[in-house]
Specification:
- The protein has about 325 residues and is an all-beta fold.
- It has a single domain, classed as Methylamine Dehydrogenase, Chain H (7 Propeller).
- It has no helices and 29 strands.
- Strand 6 and strand 7 form a beta hairpin.
- The protein starts with 16 loop residues before the first strand and ends in a 7-residue tail after the last strand.
- One of its GO terms (cellular component) is SMN complex.
Length: about 325
């Protein structure tokens, strides 16, 4: 693969933190909201089958969830960050205790699970994948049959539990975002794109559904499911994340190495950075908007400052230090 440097690459020296530890491509990242202890956390999904939990502001490794026997395609935290749910190629969705790292529940499917999410109160999960169907599992009644909904014509790549509106969002290769009523599991709305949908997330305040398909970034009104704004790019977009203040967004590409920052109002590209050695599969802004994380084919997570040079997390008095890349290694626990 060859790439050329974009003409408007930011000339300033931007030094991201590099979070090592994974051994294969990092395919999904999610920051938690700010929790009761005043901090937040970052969870990563990787094809190595070992999702990891990190301290959000610093990227410091906290622990690795061990138990999957295949690639993990999705990893998400509950609102209070006490639970995590992962979706895997081993045909399971697993729910974890983030304090102990223990598996609380493991739900078997008939095919690869590509995405899963927790309800706002952390008592249920929704999952979707290559079965082309959605399943809801009740964690209080884990042995009961799952509720199921069908309608997608191909692999489901992303699912979201929108507790504020009591709906579930699903999207994937059939070029549609579908909206499902949580109580009846009936489809109540849909949005169609011209290309398979590669990512879908809710903005931090739940106002927008952010999505990528082909070379287009979509921002849908989460109440009406109509396009609020779309931004066309010159590359295949893999993932997008909207800053909490809705003034900018970050995007990654599936076939180049550049991290791009855009103005939300105008859609103009503001900043372009290179740090990864492989295509960028996933991007996510922190809940306070101070940093954003990128995950790549190169097996690393990188943390970038929204305001380079500001004292924050491990970026302490950076101007007075030698400019070199910080390496935050993931180390397996020892007894």
């Amino acid at each position: 693969m060859t790439t050329s440097q974009p003409p408007n690459t930011n000339p300033s020296r931007v030094i991201p933190l590099t979070c090592s530890g994974h051994t294969r491509p990092v395919v999904h990242l999610q920051f938690s909201p700010i929790t009761h202890d005043g901090t937040y956390y970052l969870i990563s999904a990787c094809k190595d089958g070992n999702p990891m939990l990190r301290d959000g502001p610093t990227g410091d490794w906290i622990g690795t969830f061990t138990g999957h026997k295949g690639a993990v395609w999705s990893a998400k935290l509950s609102k209070d960050a006490t639970k995590a749910v992962t979706a895997s190629a081993d045909f399971t969705a697993k729910v974890w205790d983030t304090y102990t790292g223990d598996i609380l529940h493991s739900f078997t499917h008939d095919h690869i699970v590509r995405s899963a999410d927790l309800s706002d109160d952390g008592t249920r999960i929704v999952s979707g994948g290559q079965e082309k169907k959605l399943r809801i599992f009740d964690l209080n009644k884990p042995d009961d049959p799952a509720s199921e909904a069908e309608g997608h014509e191909s692999t489901i790549k992303s699912v979201i539990w929108d507790g504020e509106r009591n709906v579930i969002l699903s999207a994937g290769d059939d070029k549609e975002i579908r909206v499902w009523d949580v109580r009846s599991f009936d489809q109540v709305n849909t949005f169609k794109t011209e290309h398979p949908i590669t990512s879908m997330e809710l903005s931090a305040n739940g106002k927008y559904i952010t999505s990528t398909a082909g070379k287009v970034v979509y921002f849908l009104d989460a109440s009406t499911y109509q396009v609020f704004k779309s931004v066309a790019t010159a590359y295949d977009v893999s993932s997008v994340s909207l800053h909490p203040d809705h003034k900018r967004f970050v995007a990654g590409g599936s076939n180049d190495l550049w991290v791009r920052i855009y103005d939300f109002e105008s859609g103009k590209e503001l900043e372009v950075y290179k740090g990864h050695h492989g295509p960028i599969h996933t991007v996510s802004y922190s809940p306070d908007g101070e940093i954003y994380a990128t995950g790549s084919e190169d097996g690393t997570i990188r943390l970038w400052q929204t305001t380079p040079g500001k004292s924050y997390g491990l970026w302490q008095n950076k101007a007075s230090k030698d400019e070199k890349e910080n390496d935050v290694n993931g180390i397996a626990p020892t007894e």
